[in-house]
Write a structure and sequence with these properties.
single chain, alpha+beta, eight-stranded mixed beta sheet, rod-shaped
Length: 517
């Protein structure tokens, strides 16, 4: 924070309050000159002398009181300027003072405008002026004071939102600060209506009433003086009304634009941006809720990305969308099992780090072959791969996809072994079993940890066919059910050898299977 910025932030609220009151003083002096037609010369002289004296005294008094009130705020700003960190208690007190300062300042402003009303009323009555002059002076001063209060509040709020709130509340949550006052949007609009319509109307009404009951002016003089009064009011209040309306509009629309921009980013899938919350009203609360929502969505994306590294994207998306029934569903699928041969001796004869490199290379290639055909790797179980085609996202040609994936796995293993041979690493061999049938698909596990798995005879038979490849001295066996779903193009990709009906563990019936040459 630069020295110039520190000075500006430290005095922003005092300057805003002073500008509002200075404008009000100019306004009341001009109104008094334009309408005080019944007061005596002595009273007018007193008023002319009193006004600048009181304005100066009230200004000094207001600044001194506000400086005293702002001590905790200024202390924290000074520490921030010196790159020090205020204590939590100091920051909490400064935040509470800052949010309450607009209300404190307008109370002080209203007090400084009541005092001259009382003094002028006493002077007019003691000088035996007509009672209507006393009433007019008091009412006109009070009405101008109300306008000053409204202007001071909205100027202070503007200074708070634009300059000080971002420093003291970088994370928002102004509404969570205890011991603070809140002015809801409805009350703001009511105050604005009072300041820009009711107050000017009442001043015009007072002037009309005064000229109407004047006995010392001719009709033409009344018309001329009333025209002058209207011109004075026009010159004073039109800029006031326009300026105040623009100020309030800016205070209300700025956070709305922030929220709209953030929500637009959320709609486009961007969750990094936050609403700059600078008030403790409905808009501030809504901004904090939007920020909490975007933080939640951002965390969800992080979890989603991390989740996708442990399970396939299809499962991730189905789980997060809630489309996978927790109690399970029966689906027709094709299951593929792949298992490395002679894996245990290889782990015993080679360095563990080398074994890990070999395994990772193998799993990478096999997983890509499966995923390229729309398959889903459910688990890596030791040296075994457990994959499914047709679930959780159903594809009508899942048997052919599983068959083609198996062919690609065979081809990739040949290429991988060439690469291993060049490095002097041990070669790999595997067996693949494929079967098509109905299985139960569900999230299975404990309440704290679930896995998307398939359960049923189809899964068991696919695993048995993979084990059967050892006995039949082949690297890939598919069931007759899977074979029946293949088309001529698939048949042309490899030569099939129909094996004799085989009985596998866990099955009473003989199974018809095909081995690939």
């Amino acid at each position: 924070m630069t020295k110039r910025r520190y000075f500006f932030l430290a005095n922003a609220m005092v300057i805003a309050n002073g500008v509002a009151n200075m404008c009000a003083v100019v306004a009341i002096n001009n109104l008094m000159r334009a309408t005080m037609i019944k007061a005596s010369p002595e009273t007018l002289t007193f008023t002319s002398n009193f006004s600048p004296f009181y304005s100066l005294s009230a200004g000094v008094f207001s600044v001194a009181v506000m400086l005293l009130y702002e001590q905790p705020i200024r202390q924290c700003l000074k520490m921030i300027h010196q790159q020090e960190t205020p204590s939590p208690d100091q920051l909490k007190k400064a935040r509470r003072k800052l949010l309450n300062e607009p209300y404190f300042a307008i109370s002080l402003t209203f007090f400084t405008w009541i005092v001259p009303s009382i003094i002028l009323a006493a002077v007019y009555m003691n000088s035996n002026e007509l009672s209507q002059v006393t009433i007019l002076v008091v009412l006109r001063t009070l009405l101008t004071g109300l306008a000053a209060v409204a202007a001071a509040f909205f100027l202070l709020e503007y200074a708070l939102q634009m300059f000080l709130a971002p420093v003291f509340f970088p994370e928002g949550r102004l509404w969570a600060t205890p011991g603070t006052l809140r002015l809801w949007i409805g009350a703001r609009l009511a105050a604005l209506a009072l300041a820009i319509s009711i107050v000017p109307f009442c001043i015009v009404f007072l002037g009309t009433w005064e000229f109407k009951h004047s006995n010392v002016l001719t009709p033409q003089q009344k018309i001329d003086d009333f025209a002058g009064l209207l011109l004075t009011i026009f010159l004073i209040f039109i800029p006031f009304i326009v300026g105040l309306t623009c100020l309030v509009t800016a205070n209300l629309t700025r956070p709305l634009k922030e929220m709209t921009g953030v929500l637009r980013d959320v709609r486009n899938g961007l969750f990094h941006r936050k609403v700059k919350v600078v008030s403790n009203d409905e808009l501030g609360y809504t901004g904090d809720v939007i920020n909490e929502m975007t933080e939640g969505l951002q965390e969800r994306e992080i979890i989603k990305d991390a989740f996708g590294k442990y399970v396939a994207e299809e499962v991730r998306d189905e789980v997060l969308s809630g489309r996978i029934p927790l109690d399970g569903e029966k689906k027709e699928v094709t299951v593929l099992f792949s298992d490395l041969r002679n894996f245990t001796p290889m782990t015993e004869e080679n360095d563990p780090k080398l074994v890990v490199k070999i395994m990772n290379s193998y799993f990478k290639e096999m997983a890509e072959a499966i995923q390229d055909e729309g398959g889903l790797v459910l688990q890596f179980i030791g040296d075994e791969i457990y994959a499914v085609f047709g679930a959780p996202v159903f594809r009508p040609d899942h048997p052919a996809r599983a068959f083609r994936a198996g062919l690609e796995m065979r081809r990739r293993l040949v290429e991988l072994n060439k690469h291993f041979e060049e490095k002097g690493w041990p070669k790999l061999s595997h067996g693949i079993g494929v079967h098509t049938g109905e299985a139960l698909a569900a999230n299975i596990g404990s309440p704290d940890r679930l896995s998307y798995l398939l359960v049923g005879d189809t899964v068991n038979l696919a695993s048995r066919l993979q084990s059967l490849t050892k006995e039949k001295n082949t690297d890939m066996i598919i069931s007759s059910v899977t074979h029946s779903f293949l088309n001529e193009i698939d048949f042309n990709k490899s030569k099939f050898n129909q094996l004799p009906p085989t009985q596998v563990k866990g099955k009473n019936q003989w199974v018809e299977v095909f081995a690939l040459a």
